[in-house]
From TrEMBL:
Protein name: Fatty acid hydroxylase domain-containing protein
Coiled coil: 278-313
Main subcellular location: membrane
Record bears the keyword Transit peptide: no
Organism (species): Ephemerocybe angulata
Length: 336
């Protein structure tokens, strides 16, 4: 449905005095319609931002809920013995919604004035081209990944782990909905890495549209939910792009408690050696499979299960030590 500018001519003239609607794409016309219809850019941006997050997060989680209930996909389940129950999914949903409404919703109304103060385009049209947005989104991925790498390790220290991050580690075999199953303080801390990148970029360049930020957030939500899905398919992105993290990388973190602190990429964990236990585990699995090439599928599965149980037992011990001694499990990066 095209936008009818005569419906609210005053608001349209105030917000888009030189805009030719006929030159805009369908999505750009709907964008104009949204802001004029709401009548207040702060409310329009805040409401759109919140709805976008909820629709994408839960919308991306639904396919994983369906997959979890289809035995056919167990062959690609990283921890096939641990399938989330309906009760666990519902408990997770309630906790996630609590964080969204107590942390995200109150703060989201500050986004528009903050963005505009830094020079970000919000209600303006036309949208930037994909050629413009692509490098910006990559920079946001890069910034968030390093921010998360450092902050995540901090959350594994005694007080922060015991009182905040422990909630997220309730499930040693994560599932899609559990991506944001966390203490509200953790949602705020790690969420800062998602939004600070665009704000800092805009501060220095004054060349950023909120549509680019929304594209980044959609991709980041997909990454977070998929990394917690617990499935590693032959077509999973890390099998195509080796430095991509993915579920296979992050699932080990939940199983072993330590290692693999980054989100999107593997390089920081490799550079700083915080993937040593993970690489050792993968090497042991590979060597055992090679030695059992003539064994039955049942024996191979038993071998993999035994190795996973051993890693999880070591993780439980590491978690207890982190709480008791107030020290992070595994290696910690010292930033000069």
């Amino acid at each position: 449905m095209a936008f009818n500018a005569t419906a609210m001519p005053k608001l349209y003239d105030e917000m888009y005095p030189t805009t030719d609607l006929g030159s805009l794409s369908f999505l750009e016309q709907q964008w104009v319609h949204w802001y004029v219809m709401i009548g207040n850019p702060i409310i329009a941006t805040g409401l759109m931002s919140f709805l976008l997050h909820e629709i994408v997060y839960f919308g991306r989680s639904i396919p994983w809920i369906i997959i979890d209930n289809m035995p056919y996909f167990r062959q690609w389940k990283l921890q096939p013995k641990k399938i989330p129950t309906a009760a666990e999914q519902w408990e997770c949903t309630k906790t996630v919604l609590f964080s969204h409404f107590t942390i995200e919703l109150p703060l989201i109304w500050l986004f528009h004035p903050t963005a505009e103060a830094l020079g970000m385009s919000t209600y303006q049209v036309p949208f930037p081209s994909l050629k413009t947005m692509a490098p910006q989104v990559f920079l946001f991925f890069f910034f968030e990944d390093f921010f998360h790498f450092l902050a995540h390790q901090a959350l594994h220290t005694g007080p922060l782990y015991k009182h905040i991050h422990k909630i997220h580690h309730k499930y040693s075999a994560p599932f899609g909905l559990a991506a944001e199953y966390a203490h509200p303080a953790e949602v705020f801390i790690l969420g800062a890495g998602t939004i600070l990148g665009p704000l800092i970029y805009c501060y220095f360049t004054a060349n950023l549209h909120i549509v680019t930020v929304y594209l980044w957030i959609v991709l980041r939500l997909f990454q977070a939910v998929d990394a917690h899905s617990g499935y590693d398919f032959p077509w999973s992105l890390h099998n195509i792009v080796p430095f991509w993290s993915g579920a296979e990388h992050h699932d080990f973190h939940h199983m072993a408690f330590t290692n693999n602190f980054s989100t999107s990429f593997r390089w920081w964990d490799r550079i700083f050696g915080t993937d040593d236990k993970y690489r050792e585990y993968r090497a042991r699995v590979k060597a055992a499979k090679k030695a059992m090439k003539n064994a039955s599928k049942e024996d191979v599965k038993k071998m993999e299960e035994d190795l996973m149980n051993q890693v999880e037992a070591e993780g439980i011990k590491a978690e207890a030590e982190a709480e008791a001694r107030g020290m992070g499990a595994g290696k910690t990066v010292k930033v000069q």
